[in-house]
Amino acid sequence: MKFKLDENLGTRTQNIFLALGHDVKTVREEGLSGTSDDNLFQICQNETRCLLTLDLDFANILRFPHEKTEGVVVFRLPNNPKLLDLETLAHQFLKALEQMPVKSNLWIVEIGHIRVHERSDTEET
After folding, report:
1. How far is CA 114 from the centre of its chain?
2. CA–CA separation, 103 vs 87, rounded Å?
3. Distance CA 88, CA 21 (A)
4. Across-strand partners of 24?
5. Contacts 24+ apart (CB under 8 A), 110-113
6. Does residue 125 belong to any structural domain of this protein?
7. What whole-number distance in Å separates Cα of residue 71 and Cα of residue 56?
8. Structural domains in the chain (count)
9. What distance in Å separates the CA atoms of residue 55 and residue 75, rounded to the nearest whole number?
10. Which domain does 77 fall in, by range?
11. Is the pLDDT of residue 120 over 80?
C-alpha cells in the first residue's frame, strides 16, 4: 500500500512500514515540511497515498473529507508518551489493516483502540 507520513512521524515509523513492503514517502524527504494541511491533503489525493499523521486537524471530516482518499490515519499518543508508543500504534494499525481497508475512511488509532469513521451509504462515490 502507498502511504505518506506527515512531518511529525520519523524514520523509525517509516522503517516499520518499509519492512512490511509498503511504499512510504515522507513529508520531510520530499521537502514539504511546513506545507499547509490543505496542500498536504491534496498531494496525498493526487498521489493516491494514505496519509498518516499525529495532527488532529485531519480528523475534521468537514475540512478533510476522507471519502475520496486512500484513507486518513491519525495516531493519538497518550499523555506523556514513551518512545515505543508510536511504534505500538503503527503495529496496531498495520494489524488492523489486514482485516479492514482504510481506503475512503478516517481511522483514529489510540493504544488498544481504533475508531473508524467510514464513508456513509448516503455519500456519493
Report:
1. 12
2. 22
3. 18
4. 3
5. 110/76, 110/78, 111/78, 111/85
6. no
7. 15
8. 1
9. 8
10. 2-117
11. no
Residue 70: CB atoms within 10 A of its CB come to: 21
Cα separation of 69 and 48, whole Å? 7
- Is 123 domain-assigned? no
Residue 74 has which C-alpha cell?
A: 491519525
Query: Is 124 among the domain residues?
Result: no
Q: CB burial class (10 A; 0-12, 13-18, 19+) of residue 35?
A: middle
Could you give the C-alpha distances from 62 to 19, 35, 51, in angstroms and in order?
34, 20, 16
* Cα 79 to Cα 57: distance, rounded to the nearest angstrom: 18
83 band by pLDDT with thresholds 50, 70 and 90: confident
Radius of gyration (C-alpha) of the chain in whole angstroms: 14
Would you call 101 exposed, middle or buried from its count of C-beta atoms within 10 A (0-12, 13-18, 19+)?
exposed
> Model confidence over 22-80: pLDDT tens digits?
999 999 999 999 999 999 999 999 999 999 999 999 999 999 999 989 999 999 999 99
The pTM of the full predicted model, rounded to 2 decimals, is 0.92
59 falls within a domain: yes
**C-alpha distances in Å from residue 19, one per residue of 23, 24, 35, 117:** 10, 10, 27, 28
